[in-house]
Amino acid sequence: MFQRLRRLAPELVAVPAGSFLLGATAEQAGASALRFGIPLEWCLEETPQQQVELPAFRISRGPASCAEYLAFVIATDHPTPPYWHGDEPPARLRDHPVTGISLNDARAYCRWLSTATSQEFRLPSEAEWEKAARADDGRTFPWGDEWEASLCNTAEGGAGATTPIGSHPRDASPYGCVDMAGNVEEWTISKYRPYPGSSLAPTRQDGVVVRGGSWNGDQAMARCASRHVRSPGLASPMRGFRVVCISE
Question: Dihedrals φ, ψ of 179, to 5°?
Fold first, then answer.
């Protein structure tokens, strides 16, 4: 069995207080629908674009790894993801994002990490996630506005599975977060709701927003503004999570 992690708290990056551009304009939504061949309704969920003010926070540099999740499993006897070998992740995957995690699993990890480190951890809100990904200039992808398949782990790259966290260092946000456009989509604490000012009907109110691209998703899902809605009990090999620390 792998040794317990010497440092339980993940590497954190600081996101300063201030406003940023959340979402997309109607024109951007229409252009995305045409460019990526996806339903306009999906893109309209990103509208209207608005300035959102957030306090300062710290967010983990990358998604939670299998090795980090193992420390939680050892300490709490929490059930392991289905692809693990008994109580351990496969050795080749310990530096990959942990996947097969439900929303409740991710929340349980945050509660344990808070107790173990005497700091307060939780999942990010979708606004926190988006600001960490795009900063305050409204960029399309974490690195800028132009798509480059080689910069992240999405379906276009052909890896067909997760890769070690940080394997694509240019898939980094202005604040230094990695793997936000690819590798795994990530849980947030935000229930799905249309944005304020949206004309969309408030459907799917039992769903939770996940953010980010994944190894099985395409470039449309890798955009910083892209929102996906998932059932909170649904675990997936394409989904993991990262954490926010709100302790000073």
Answer: 65, 35
What are the CA-CA distances from residue 244 to residues 31, 73, 89, 129, 189 (Å)? Answer: 32, 20, 24, 9, 11
Tokens 């690195």: give the residue. 143
**Whether the Cβ atoms of residue 168 and residue 200 lie closer than 8 Å to each other:** no
Whole-number Cα distances in Å, 11 to 68, 70, 246 = 11, 16, 14
Task: Give the whole-angstrom CA distance, residue 71 versus residue 239.
Answer: 19
Residue 156, pLDDT > 50, answer yes
Q: Which amino acid is at 199?
A: S
Residues 6+ apart with CB under 8 A from 92: none
Q: Which residues contact 158 (CB under 8 A, 6 or more apart)?
A: none
Distance CA 228, CA 131 (A): 16
Question: In the chain, what percentage of residues exceed pLDDT 70?
Answer: 96
Q: What are phi and psi of 66, to 5 degrees?
A: -60, -40
DSSP string of 9-42, one letter each residue: SPPEEEE-SEEEEES--HHHHHHHHHHHT--HHH
In the block, tokens 């969309």 appear at 200
The 10s digit of each residue's pLDDT in 57-70 is 999 999 999 999 99
- 0.85 exceeded by the pTM? yes
The predicted structure's pLDDT at residue 1: 41
For residue 11, what pLDDT is reported? 95
* Dihedrals phi, psi of 57, to nearest 5 degrees: -155, 170
- How many helices (H) and strands (E) in the chain? 6, 10
